[in-house]
Amino acid sequence: FVTVGGLQTVVDTVALSALVLPSSAKREALLLLTGIARTSREYKAAQCELRASAVVVAFMKGCADDDAALDAGRELLVALSEGNPQFALTIANDALELLT
Question: pTM, whole model, 2 decimals?
Answer without folding.
Answer: 0.91
